[in-house]
Amino acid sequence: MTTLNADPAELQKFSELAHRWWDPASEFKPLHEINPMRLDWIDRTASLAGKVVLDVGCGGGILSEGMASRGAKVTGIDLSEKALGVARLHLYESGLEVDYTLISAEACAAERPAQFDVVTCMEMLEHVPDPASTIAACARLVKPGGHVFFSTLNRNLKSYALAIIGAEYLLKLLPKGTHDYAKFIKPSELSRHCRNAGLNPTELIGMSYNPLTKVYSLGRDTDVNYLIHTTRN
C-alpha cells in the first residue's frame, strides 16, 4: 500500500477555509482575481471546448467551473472532502456540470490512465510532500499529445520577500502560513520533473502582482509566481 502524497496539516488548513472558497472578498480573493487570466491562457493554448479535462487539486472548483464554462467536460479531484462539498454545492448556483471526486492524483492515474485531453494542476505542487510524484501522475493521466498545465512559486530571495513577507504579512493578501518557502520550486526543477515524467515543456510564463494598481498580469517575470505548459510525448 503506497503512502498518500499529502500533508495532513495542509489538508486541514484548506478544509477549515473551505466554506469561504467562493467569497471573492475572502482569503481566496487572489484565486478569484487570477482565474480569468489563467483560464484564458489555458484556453488559448489547449482550446478547451469539447475537451475532456482533469483539474488536479481542484479545491472549491474555481478553475474547474471556469473550464466547464468554456465547453470542456471537467472532472475535479481533491483530497479535501469539505472543499469538494463546497464545489458541488456551487454547481447549483452556476448551473454548470463538473464531476468532483475525492481521490489523489496518483490513485486517479492508476484508475484512469491516458483518459484526459488536458490536465491542470494549479497552485498545488508547493503544498504536497512529493511534487515529482504528482507531476508523474499528471503525465500518466493525460493522453499522448495532450496538454498538462502547472503553476507554482519560484524559490529565491525575491519570492520569499514578495510571496510570504509581502503577500502574507504586509499586504495580507493571503493568510499567514499559507506557504512554506522550503516547498517552493524553481522552474528548472519543475522542468526536470516534467521531462523525467515524459512531459515536454513548451511555454514558461510568469505571473506578477502590482500592489499599487492591485492588478495581476502574465509576462516574462518568473521570479515569483509562474505557469508552465507541457505536452505528453
UniProtKB/TrEMBL annotation:
Pathway: Cofactor biosynthesis; ubiquinone biosynthesis
GO biological process assignments: methylation
Swiss-Prot/TrEMBL keywords: Methyltransferase, S-adenosyl-L-methionine, Transferase, Ubiquinone biosynthesis
Protein name: Ubiquinone biosynthesis O-methyltransferase
A Pfam family that the UniProt record links to this protein: Methyltransf_23
Organism: Parazoarcus communis SWub3 = DSM 12120
Record bears the keyword Methyltransferase: yes
EC number: 2.1.1.222, 2.1.1.64
Gene assigned in the entry: ubiG
InterPro entries: SAM-dependent_MTases_sf, UbiG_MeTrfase
Function in brief: O-methyltransferase that catalyzes the 2 O-methylation steps in the ubiquinone biosynthetic pathway.
PANTHER family found in the cross-reference section: METHYLTRANSFERASE, UBIQUINONE BIOSYNTHESIS O-METHYLTRANSFERASE, MITOCHONDRIAL
Family: Belongs to the methyltransferase superfamily. UbiG/COQ3 family.
GO terms assigned for molecular function: 2-polyprenyl-6-hydroxyphenol methylase activity; 3-demethylubiquinol 3-O-methyltransferase activity; polyprenyldihydroxybenzoate methyltransferase activity
Residues at which S-adenosyl-L-methionine binds: R38, G57, D78, M122
Top-rank EC class of the record's enzyme: transferase
Annotated SUPFAM superfamilies: S-adenosyl-L-methionine-dependent methyltransferases
Lineage of origin: Bacteria, Pseudomonadati, Pseudomonadota, Betaproteobacteria, Rhodocyclales
NCBIfam families with a match to the protein in the record: UbiG
Reaction(s) the record says it catalyses: a 3-(all-trans-polyprenyl)benzene-1,2-diol + S-adenosyl-L-methionine = a 2-methoxy-6-(all-trans-polyprenyl)phenol + S-adenosyl-L-homocysteine + H(+); a 3-demethylubiquinol + S-adenosyl-L-methionine = a ubiquinol + S-adenosyl-L-homocysteine + H(+)
Superkingdom as given in the UniProt entry: Bacteria
